[in-house]
Amino acid sequence: MSFFNKLKWKYLRYIVYLDRHNLKGYVLPLLIFVSTTIGLVVAFEMYQYINVWGGWKIAENNALTFCEHNRFTEAVVQPSNTWSNLGFLIVGLLCLFIGINDFKSREPNTNNLLVRYPTFSILLGISCIYLFFGSFMYHASLTYFFQKLDITGMYAVVISLIAYNVFRFFPIRYAKLRAKYRSSHHIIITIGVLLNVVFFAGLWKVNVNILFPIVVLLLIGMNVIYNVKQKHISKIYKHLFKLSTLVLLLSTMFWIFDRENVLCSPTSIWQGHALWHILNALSIFLLYLCYRTENVNVQLIYKDRQEIYKYFK
């Protein structure tokens, strides 16, 4: 690698707060990704022409609206829609291990909230891995059980992002027992986890074509409002946010085209829903990197809130 490329790489690592991370720490997630992929390929190749899902309850609602041809006599019913979920796995592993490495190289005085509170990165990483598993198995089987995991995985990822955005709006709370301000991340993350339990318990059955877009629009709206309120937002933050939004819109377009059979070739490896998976994974990671470029003066927030409390006490 040339000196210029090394310098550029160090700069990119610095602006997303990865400069204190040891790159060797990311060998493990890469190995997990490769070994998981190989393991799944081998497993499904062994049972390729066996109907392993024959005794399972078939999925409902959107299950049969995808363009891809359904191979009900094979182990993988929808190959392209299945394997494209690997994008969520690599994004989930990266977010998870970035959060873990943030814990190891803890910077208590950093001005980036994701670095300061790595639990949000870990929550997003676990949610993406959960979505990978649910969506992968759902499109491989088209069964009711994995459909539930697929839908709850979608909500889990969005809820984890909403939880972080709520934290950006309300990073601290007043603890009456200790008579001082404390971080609110514990409460917000707990509420996020409880919301996932509620969705898993039954809320996931609400029409996903109505409720899920509402939840996504809530997330987008929170981001837009926060960005408008902030006086100083870096160019790289703006670029990453716009790019993430653009990729999300593009993925939605492919989802619609696939559902309405506008661009549809049932036996092709190029499927609109598969592109929806890949582009959504990319959009999530771009948004995550966008958050990691942000600088928030947490100490100043603590000081200002304390002064306000003293004034009105």
Average pLDDT number: 87
Count of all domains:
1
The end-to-end span amounts to: 60 Å
Strand order of the largest sheet: 1-2
Total of helices: 12
Derived structural class: mainly alpha
Rg, nearest Å: 21 Å
Mind describing the biggest β-sheet? Answer: 2 strands, antiparallel
Spans where pLDDT lies below 50 across 5 or more residues: 3-9, 306-313
Which overall shape is indicated by the principal axes computed on the Cα atoms?
globular
Offer a few descriptive terms.
313 residues, mainly alpha, two-stranded antiparallel sheet, 12 helices, 67% helix, disordered C terminus
Which secondary structure elements does this structure contain, and how are they paired or packed?
Elements: H1 3-15, H2 27-46, H3 79-83, H4 86-104, H5 113-116, H6 119-141, H7 144-169, E1 172-175, E2 180-183, H8 185-201, H9 208-229, H10 235-259, H11 272-292, H12 298-312
Antiparallel strand pairs: 1-2
Helix pairs in contact: 2-4, 4-6, 4-11, 6-7, 7-8, 7-9, 10-11
Structural commentary:
With 313 residues, the protein is mainly α. The protein has one domain (10-312). Helices cover 67% and strands 3% of the residues. The protein has a two-stranded antiparallel sheet. A hairpin with a 4-residue loop joins strand 1 and strand 2. The relative contact order is 0.13.
